[in-house]
Amino acid sequence: MAQSGIATDDLSDGSRVVTFDAALYKSSAVKKAAYKYGGLFYVLIAQRDDHIEVRLKPKEPCTSTDALVGAFCNEVLDQELRETIAGETAGIRDLLLAQAFSKTTLIDPELETSEYDTEHSADSSEGQ
């Protein structure tokens, strides 16, 4: 396995095998990237004990397979980071959704008045 957590191999049929370290990348992130690149590649994903193996075969002859495989790897990283950020911000997202669909306020009503904004605007302009 490469130090970056990704390794690639060329196959005789023009396919490229990309191997991701399962300790660094979730299979859901790999699947989302594979779905996004499904228009360019036939994709086969195999989950192993400590790695995820993705076989990418271009649907049409391509002179820039290296660039497409690199873009696929970047997309896997992007999807991995999206999942991490979604997990880190889940509480805030849930509060916003609950507030949006609630018939009553979930936040201190005094903080929601327009007077709050005008008072603070006046205070900040007085100090200048």
Folded structure, characterized:
- The chain is of the alpha+beta class and 128 residues long.
- It folds into two domains: 6-88, Gyrase A, domain 2; 91-126, no CATH class.
- The chain is 46% helix and 20% strand.
- Strands 1-2-4-3 form a four-stranded antiparallel β-sheet, with helices on one face.
- Strand 1 (6-10) and strand 2 form a beta hairpin.
- Helix 1 (27-36) crosses helix 2 (65-88).
- The longest helix is centred in the middle third of the chain and has 24 residues, at 65-88.
- It is elongated and about 70 Å long.
Question: Which characteristics define this entry?
Answer:
Gyrase A, domain 2, 4 strands, elongated
SSE arrangement:
Elements (H helix, E strand, L loop, with lengths): L5 E5 L5 E6 L5 H10 L4 E7 L3 E8 L6 H24 L1 H12 L12 H13 L2
Antiparallel strand pairs: 1-2, 2-4, 3-4
Helix pairs in contact: 1-2
Secondary structure category: alpha+beta
What CATH calls the topology of the largest domain is Gyrase A, domain 2
What's the story with the biggest beta sheet? 4 strands, antiparallel
Low confidence ranges: none
Tell me the name of the CATH class of the largest domain: Alpha Beta
